[in-house]
Amino acid sequence: MSINSESDNHKGPFSWRPSYHIAPPYGLMNDPNGFSYFNHQYWLFFQWNPSGCEHVNKHWGLMTSTDLVHWQQQPFKMAPTHWFDKDGCYSGSGLVEKGGLSLFYTGNVRHGELRESYQCLVTTEDGQQYLNQGPLWTKQLEDFTGHVRDPKVFYVNQQRRMWLAAQNRDLKGGVAVLDETAEGTWQLRGHYFNPIGWANDQLGYMWECPDRLQFGDQVVLVCCVQGINCSDPYSSNENLSGFFQIEEDADGEIRFTSDYLLLDHGFEFYAPQSIVDPQGQTILIGWMGLPDDPEQPSVANEQWCGQLTMPRVCQWENGALRQRPLAELFAAFSEPNTVLPITFKMASFECTNTCYIELDNLKGAGQLTVDNPKESLVITWDENGEATVDRTEFCTVGMDLIRQYKSRDGCIKQLQLFIDNSSFELFINDGEAVMTGRIFPNTSVTHATVLGVAGELKVRFLDTSCINTLMKEQFSDEYASLVSR
């Protein structure tokens, strides 16, 4: 569909546009790209079709922030205007180097049913002027199909190394490892893949969006495995986002030391990117979407679709990854409006579309319901530590309805639920797991109920006066020219 930048077609009193998550002003947003800390700011690029809500015409949009909470839309920095990216500027990474910021991305070129991919470099010294240096090499990699993309570039012993999502001629997904030579060329070191585990020997036909996390000696390979036939309630889509624990040698060889572990146990989460911030924290942001999402109601009503997760702080504790909400985000919420010990069978309280609900020191089974007069989001947990999210009444046609997570501790002790108009993020047991999803209620959320638990309840509401997330306001002539095409 075409996008009209002058008006918003939403007819009802309730908007699905988020208040504290990043979303596009119009058009389609998907993968975060080039996430970096540069010139005392966070730079978060993203896949963006500014002229429609289809997965075509991919640009790189840009948001900047000084605190990961208040974000400023910037003019777009990459458009598919060259021979080597004419069918899309696909995903990639950022690398802060002496003298500026280097952005690596995949240029997509189609020839009918065939495709070519080019790994390209854009550089900037000041974040204002950008130089597209074109492909790092022009010959297509041997022994691979045209599905080679999403460069993740990092340094090893003062040498650039690249991880690439790559499909071999046997149609197996994996990660290709390349090293830059002293002469500035790139040498293929190998192609590495592994069954996902879980008593499952499937490999997937593509491992998209590789990322690399490191916690001391523990290295984590993040990737999005496509093509897994998985029908259980814990992970019932074919586009997974997770990680392997790995070991590496000096030549880049990867040895897998764990099964594939999910980063998010909810509905829509994909293509995460991470940085290490100035305080040494690993910060991760993902796309609240999937490659084969059904059309979202915001497309027809408000001419946009897609949004990103809140920043998560990742830590490696006792041999496991924990993801917690960014502490600075809580400053955008009020002090707890409700603090109640839950020692009775039911607690009922007012709620809004932009709120935070925390249940702590839980004992036994229980249920949290967030609703309006006609619809509800239902979260239940049992005495064996299994949590279930049922969004049946908040869904649109084609969306999965139920997800479950079984705690490795055998009990549910804490739940932290963030709701933001058309999305939720549920953190379980102090970051042991996260369940993320989109929701599309027809009217505003007004009420919540907690049933049958012992514990403590806290409720906070968003203070909209102190947060400046992306809204559809004033945009430059550069954007106006895009949407008028």
TrEMBL record:
<dbReference type="InterPro" id="IPR006232">
    <property type="entry name" value="Suc6P_hydrolase"/>
</dbReference>
<keyword id="KW-0963">Cytoplasm</keyword>
<dbReference type="GO" id="GO:0004564">
    <property type="term" value="F:beta-fructofuranosidase activity"/>
</dbReference>
<comment type="pathway">
    <text>Glycan biosynthesis; sucrose metabolism.</text>
</comment>
<dbReference type="InterPro" id="IPR013148">
    <property type="entry name" value="Glyco_hydro_32_N"/>
</dbReference>
<comment type="similarity">
    <text>Belongs to the glycosyl hydrolase 32 family.</text>
</comment>
<dbReference type="Pfam" id="PF00251">
    <property type="entry name" value="Glyco_hydro_32N"/>
</dbReference>
<dbReference type="InterPro" id="IPR023296">
    <property type="entry name" value="Glyco_hydro_beta-prop_sf"/>
</dbReference>
<dbReference type="Pfam" id="PF08244">
    <property type="entry name" value="Glyco_hydro_32C"/>
</dbReference>
<keyword id="KW-0119">Carbohydrate metabolism</keyword>
<dbReference type="InterPro" id="IPR018053">
    <property type="entry name" value="Glyco_hydro_32_AS"/>
</dbReference>
<comment type="function">
    <text>Enables the bacterium to metabolize sucrose as a sole carbon source.</text>
</comment>
<dbReference type="GO" id="GO:0005737">
    <property type="term" value="C:cytoplasm"/>
</dbReference>
<dbReference type="GO" id="GO:0005985">
    <property type="term" value="P:sucrose metabolic process"/>
</dbReference>
<keyword id="KW-0378">Hydrolase</keyword>
<protein>
    <recommendedName>
        <fullName>Sucrose-6-phosphate hydrolase</fullName>
        <ecNumber>3.2.1.26</ecNumber>
    </recommendedName>
</protein>
<dbReference type="InterPro" id="IPR001362">
    <property type="entry name" value="Glyco_hydro_32"/>
</dbReference>
<dbReference type="InterPro" id="IPR013189">
    <property type="entry name" value="Glyco_hydro_32_C"/>
</dbReference>
<dbReference type="InterPro" id="IPR051214">
    <property type="entry name" value="GH32_Enzymes"/>
</dbReference>
<feature type="domain" description="Glycosyl hydrolase family 32 C-terminal">
    <location>
        <begin position="374"/>
        <end position="453"/>
    </location>
</feature>
<keyword id="KW-0326">Glycosidase</keyword>
<dbReference type="InterPro" id="IPR013320">
    <property type="entry name" value="ConA-like_dom_sf"/>
</dbReference>
<feature type="domain" description="Glycosyl hydrolase family 32 N-terminal">
    <location>
        <begin position="21"/>
        <end position="325"/>
    </location>
</feature>
